[in-house]
């Protein structure tokens, strides 16, 4: 991943043609590059915290929202590229260390930051879905959690050969947030359940196959893509501009396929899903034969999944990693995931955002999330002590309590989102 979103050659041209190149704090970079005819501009936003794998905190959330709002309202901006600094990640998620500190704080500071973060993250990531203009999200390295929530709302999602996309929240006692309920529930069954319950990482080939990304393009093509975006015949018609971007990215993808076919080694990794499709389907076979609609049904299904997961004999490292993640993950999170996938498939995106805010604010008020961060990130002993020993031990009343809003009826803060 280049440290700047354009090549050396493009930079030298752009410096004389950029109408505005602003550094909005060190954590987010915003640059506006002129089209070749000087009539329009392409916005390039870079998450610029490589040392934290571009983990998003509240300050970054607000800066991202400011950029999106400004470029959305600016008729001179015809398209946008969103990428991450460094070689390791677009974004590995939210800055959970700050959330941990907020949950540990006392007095007036207790949960102050955590509540503000989730209010900001949910309302402002929703703006990505409403941007309206071509928005290219460049998925290299880790794209997880809150970072995935930002990435997945883009109109043109690119995965590179280094992509590792996942909802790994079960490992820290949260839940697949920032619209995870919407996207996971719409994946081909039972992939959404597998991804959420195991936190398995998906490569670009598999993400393209199931619709989580739109294009597979090599990571070293980002600079050339920006230069080609400058050459497009932009106009005021947003539909035509989206068509230009689709054609351009499709051309990049086909070119990479031709190069890869002639190379001694494939550029993109082979499918993990195809290798494990049979075992994954067998794992969730009971659910495909019955209707699971209640919390009691969910407990029955999870009990079966846990039993089958440990009975399946696989020599595939990817499958076994998923099994280990489930076994070590938070049992209560597994129950929330089942509810997310039941309800999310019948909700609009806006309804999911409103509903998941309730889960997020309840999560910081229950001990599993705090304990998960302690074990996996702070102390790094990797031995979380969850409230419940297994999925069989999670009471239905606990799940019901997590679904209760914190506001009176009619006073949800996102009612007018």
UniProtKB/TrEMBL annotation:
Protein name in the entry: 3-hydroxyisobutyryl-CoA hydrolase
PANTHER family: 3-HYDROXYISOBUTYRYL-COA HYDROLASE, MITOCHONDRIAL, 3-HYDROXYISOBUTYRYL-COA HYDROLASE-RELATED
The reaction(s) this protein catalyses: 3-hydroxy-2-methylpropanoyl-CoA + H2O = 3-hydroxy-2-methylpropanoate + CoA + H(+)
Species classification: Bacteria, Pseudomonadati, Pseudomonadota, Gammaproteobacteria, Oceanospirillales
One GO BP annotation of this record: L-valine catabolic process
Gene3D superfamilies per record: 2-enoyl-CoA Hydratase, Chain A, domain 1
NCBIfam families per UniProt: PRK05617.1
EC numbers for this chain: 3.1.2.4
GO molecular function, one term: isomerase activity
Alphabetized UniProt keyword annotations: Hydrolase, Isomerase
EC category name: hydrolase
UniProt xrefs under InterPro entries: ClpP/crotonase-like_dom_sf, ECH_dom, HIBYL-CoA-H
Residue intervals of the Enoyl-CoA hydratase/isomerase domain: 42-403
Entry GO terms, CC: cytosol
